Amino acid sequence: MSIFTPTNQIRLTNVAVVRMKRGGKRFEIACYKNKVVGWRSGVEKDLDEVLQTHSVFVNVSKGQVAKKEDLINAFGTDDQTEICKQILTKGEVQVSDKERHTQLEQMFRDIATIVADKCVNPETKRPYTVILIERAMKDIHYSVKPNKSTKQQALEVIKQLKENMKIERAHMRLRFILPVKEGKKLREKLKPLIKVIESEDFGDQLEIVCLIDPGCFREIDELIQKETKGKGSLEVLSLKDVEEGDEKFE
After folding, report:
1. Would you place residue 95 in the very low, low, confident or very high pLDDT band (cuts 50, 70, 90)?
2. Model confidence pTM above 0.90
3. Which of 25, 66, 82, 199 has the fewest C-beta atoms lying within 10 Å of its C-beta?
4. How many CB atoms lie within 10 A of CB 172?
């Protein structure tokens, strides 16, 4: 789509239009595609990376710029950058049905890929294929939410799939090396955060090899640093405790 503004003939391409109705009038801004979601989720913080121009339009595709008095009546200001921010945050992104369908299909695949990467069958420790996860998502009629990140939605999908199939996040394998003095006391505090203790060695130091849920990693790391005042160490032996081969659906 090529767009010309009547004043300075700036050509805008690769446009995502965000629209807002205010005071009975329509206002639009021209953004770069795929940047609006990043701004709304807080990933993208540079406004110039999102907006193609700091102008407010009544019709982006025709290049019709909004009048100053209309902006003041609707927004109480004629500061175009501030108005752009409001529209960017609260406006409605305009996409064609075909674009929307393609975007949702891609997000569906991305969510399934994240789930397949993070999860295993807890009984066999084998990962599921992306195709199998996609099929399972269709079976539970999972509906993609375009305004939520794929990572957030992947965590939702894992919860929902647990009701219908054997699936859980793959465990991380860690090794702790703790000073003996703090070690025994700290071991009791760490116990609720550990899934399986694979080995323990009490020597000059306390060494523990264990499996944990990845969601507990930060809490464990902070606990060890705090309780040992930096003397303890934590080593990631493997990000995923996984067996070779892919899981099959029964």
Report:
1. confident
2. no
3. 199
4. 21
